[in-house]
């Protein structure tokens, strides 16, 4: 079997193999070392690629390792010349320089418990129901996996519960208030009620407040609440939900350690 092989050497996941063809159409295959050995001996193999009728051909490298590109005319007529190069993976997403650290947010425990028998939770999550699956629920899950206790409506409310009373208890007995700001949030009544409670407790120094912007711009937040637009926040356009949860968990763990040291002193 006649073919041309381009040894790409060791490449990182996310890089792109770029194959330039001149002449007729050709079969282009991107293979790791194991599958290239099978290919050149005529055995069954796996590859990325196929029949290329236009040039250049761009194939994403799916994992780090040693990679090869082959070009052949099996089942085709004509002649073809080829060359191959590799574009490195894109750089990590640039974080805004003014993002700030969540450690700058106050994180003292709430001074009292407003609901008799109500446990004090680390985090209260206020959100619109449309943002539950995309942000609120995975955020709660990541925090719980990190050992952080969370107040989230689907985890707390039961048939027959008073929604207003349960929310009031959650607000009064949480250390950290998270508000997921979105277009849906600003259109709803209950999220606004929760936000009023969170802001009141923030102003009086009883609770910490972290806005999370989801599919919303600063101008849109500014139009709804100028005071929130200037607060330290995280945006799902710049950070993943898992990254945001990790930051919050670190702050709460530091708060616990500081409280333990004060109690010991």
Automatic annotation (TrEMBL):
What the entry lists under InterPro entries is as follows: DUF1883 (IPR015073), DUF1883-like_sf (IPR036488), TIR_dom (IPR000157), Toll_tir_struct_dom_sf (IPR035897)
Which superkingdom?
Bacteria
* Positions of the TIR domain: 119-252
Region (Disordered) location = 83-102
Organism, as annotated: Streptomyces pseudovenezuelae
Protein name in UniProt: DUF1883 domain-containing protein
């Amino acid at each position: 079997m006649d073919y041309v092989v381009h040894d790409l050497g060791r490449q990182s996941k996310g890089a792109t193999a770029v194959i330039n063809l001149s002449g007729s159409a050709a079969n282009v295959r991107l293979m790791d070392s194991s599958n290239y050995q099978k290919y050149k001996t005529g055995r069954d193999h796996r590859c990325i690629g196929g029949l290329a009728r236009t040039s250049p051909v761009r194939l994403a490298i799916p994992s780090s390792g040693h990679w090869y590109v082959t070009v052949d005319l099996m089942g085709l007529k004509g002649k073809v010349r080829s060359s191959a190069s590799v574009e490195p993976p894109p750089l990590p997403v640039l974080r805004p320089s003014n993002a700030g650290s969540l450690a700058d947010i106050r994180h003292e425990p709430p001074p009292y418990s407003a609901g008799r028998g109500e446990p004090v939770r680390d985090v209260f999550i206020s959100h619109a129901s449309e943002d539950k699956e995309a942000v609120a629920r995975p955020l709660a899950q990541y925090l719980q996996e990190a050992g952080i206790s969370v107040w989230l409506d689907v985890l707390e409310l039961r048939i027959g519960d008073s929604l207003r009373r349960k929310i009031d208890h959650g607000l009064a007995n949480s250390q950290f208030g998270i508000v997921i700001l979105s277009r849906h949030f600003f259109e709803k009544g209950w999220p606004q009620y929760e936000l009023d409670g969170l802001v009141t407790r923030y102003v009086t120094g009883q609770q910490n407040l972290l806005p999370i912007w989801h599919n919303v711009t600063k101008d849109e937040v500014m139009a709804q609440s100028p005071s929130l637009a200037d607060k330290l926040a995280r945006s799902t356009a710049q950070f993943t939900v898992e990254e945001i949860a990790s930051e919050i968990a670190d702050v709460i763990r530091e708060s616990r350690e500081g409280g333990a040291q004060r109690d010991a002193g």
